[in-house]
Write a structure and sequence with these properties.
Number of domains: 1
Distance between the termini: 14 Å
Strand order of the largest sheet: 1-2-3
Oligomer: single chain
Structural class: alpha/beta
CATH superfamily: NAD(P)-binding Rossmann-like Domain
CATH topology: Rossmann fold
């Protein structure tokens, strides 16, 4: 949803394929959808929109906890034979390790903020 954040993902983290919401994402060569969609937005609308972008036999990885209900078309989901993988992606020990790394300046926190 933010060109600035997409540019940061490309420049700082090496993502090759990023797409703004509203663009015709599934034009060639992606007309058959994505093999993997990794969503960490925590936004129910963004997650719901992602279902239509999945390829046959794909995986949808949801790394966030959304307090709202997520809805999707069951026939569309099943015809794609998609796997949904949900994770909050961390334990208490993981959070402590990250906080220690930040305190020791081993993580560039400026790279994580939107500018």
């Amino acid at each position: 949803m933010s060109r600035t954040r997409l540019n940061q993902a490309t420049e700082k983290f090496g993502f090759k394929d990023t797409h703004l919401v509203g663009n015709d994402i599934l034009s060639a060569p992606l007309q058959d959808g994505f093999d993997v969609i990794f969503d960490a937005t925590g936004n129910a609308q963004a997650i719901e929109a992602g279902f239509s972008l999945l390829a046959h036999g794909s995986r949808y990885v949801l790394v966030s906890v959304v307090k709202e209900t997520i809805c999707f078309s069951d026939p569309e989901f099943h015809k794609r034979e998609t796997q949904i993988i949900g994770s909050r992606n961390a334990t208490g020990e993981d959070f402590e390790a990250v906080m220690s790394a930040i305190r020791a300046s081993r993580i560039d926190t400026d790279a994580l903020s939107a500018r």
